[in-house]
Structures are given as C-alpha cells and as structure tokens.
Known about the structure:
By secondary structure, the protein is α/β, with parallel strands linked by helices. The relative contact order is 0.17. The chain is globular and about 50 Å long. A six-stranded mixed β-sheet has the order 1-2-10-7-8-9. Strands 5-4-3-6 form a four-stranded parallel β-sheet, sandwiched between helices. The site of pyridoxal-5'-phosphate has 20 residues, from helix 1, helix 3 and helix 8.
Amino acid sequence: MLPSAVTHLRLDGRLFYIKRDDLIDPLLSGNKFRKLFTLIQSPLEHIHTVISYGGIQSNAMLSMAALAHQKGWRFDYYTKRAPAHVKQMPEGNLKAALELGMCLHEIDHGAYEATVRALFSRINPHELLLPQGGSDPMAERGMAILADEIKEWQREEGIDKLSVAIPSGTGASAYFLAKHLDLPVLTTPLIGDAVYLRAQMDALGPPCANLHLIETKQRYRFGTPYQAFLSVHQTLRETGVVFDLLYAPKMWLALLEHLSQIDGEIMYIHSGGVYGNATMMERYMYAKMV
Ligand SMILES: *Cc1c(COP(=O)(O)O)cnc(C)c1O
C-alpha cells in the first residue's frame, strides 16, 4: 500500500507530479490516512471508543468512522444540529460514516462549544478523543512518513529542484510535511484567511521557513460553490484525475496564479476526500451552476 503512487498531469503548459494518497483506501484516504497512521498501526487493545467532533460532512469524520470500523471501536461523533432532511436521507460522507456504525450526536448550536469542551474533561483510559479534523500531535508521524516517501521518490527520479503543494484546513498536514521536508511546501488557507492559518500552525510548533502560504486574488468562502472551482475541477478531471471539490480547487487556482514564480518541478499531494464530492456536487446543482 505504501509508498503511494506518483502519477503526472499537464496543465497550463506545466507538468505536475501527483502524489496519489487518494488511492490508498477509498474511505480512509489522503491526508486523513496519514494523520491517523499512528492509530491505524497501533494495536491499542485497551481502547474501545473513539470520540470526535466537527462538521456533519467532514472528510475527517468519514476517515475516523472507517478507522473505528476496522478496529472494532465504537465511534461517537458530535456535531451541530442539522436540518431534519440531512438525517432522513443521509448522503455522501455522512451516509458512509453512519453505515460504518458511527453514533451521531447532534448538539444545539448554543451548547456546542461547551459540549466539546466537556468531552476533553471526561475522557477515560479506554477512550480516545481526536480533535477536530484528526489534528493531533500524533498526526506528525504519518506526515513524516509521507515526507520520506517524497524524498525517496525525488532521489530515484534524480529531480534536483522540487516544490510540494498541499491545501490547508487546520494546516496540520502542511505544517508537519514542511517540518519533515527540506523542500518548499506551498499551501493555501481554505478555512479562514492566512492570519488564521498562521495562528493554527503556530500552535503546532515553531515556524518552518520552507512553508509558504500562497493566496488567490479572489477570496473564496469555505464550502461555497464557485464557477472557478468547478472549472478547474473539470479541467483536472479531463486529464484523468478526480480531485476533491472542497479543498483542491483553491489550491490549484493559487498554484496556477503563482506558476511563473515556481521554478523546478512541482508535486501536488492529492489529499483524498473524493467521497465527499457527491454532496458538494449537489450544492452546485442547487446553485444551478451545473
Ligand atoms: C482534511 C483535508 C484537507 C485539510 O487538511 P488539514 O490537515 O486539516 O490542513 C485538505 N484536503 C483534503 C482533501 C482534506 O480532506
């Protein structure tokens, strides 16, 4: 299964190497596989329950559900109360996670923060609490292994100059990758702006000089359909690779806007999340964009 494959595609006259972490596992794929790697590998026989919280369609939620299912653990997931139809006819990541046995706990918006805080104080030794997005210090080891795979590939290919691109939600993936890689790592903030992302990364450790935040000229709101996202997604799809619709489009747009400043070869880390495309595509249809 590891190292994951590297393929390539051509866009705007440039060659891009694609690190196919999306192919590792359909449910436990991409950077979530990397972030949960330590847990996947450890026997952890004393654990019977994993607990987490966050968005009702999150990619991390599905990966944690797949992990818990593999391990035979109970999975309690806390989220803000969703409209009734979301649960009556679950779709996408939620549907798959429920089928894997996830116990969903919906919290009223006003009580959400306090409920999440309380989770941290009542954890017992048989339970594992994973912060939102699976971003734990534990995520570092899996990203270090990804870094090693990239270094080994670069050596085998005899590539002298290489930049690596990976989109950021919590920023944990990009941060730990940059920490373990002696190459420029380019990322773009999806949730909030660059200031917010820097603060998230500062909480993980000292700044990495090789980690560069690049922005698109246009501002985009997370989880919102945009024509520009759809077009780059479709252009990429025509090259034969399906990327996720939530994070990848903005990272690609940022890369394309900064292309002339990037010399040497470029590797894009395909961070999975393709399973969530069904529900994102519905938003595009609802917005009459497709
Ligand atoms: C979760 C996710 C990210 C963001 O990862 P962080 O470590 O939270 O920055 C990026 N891309 C995809 C496809 C994801 O599922």
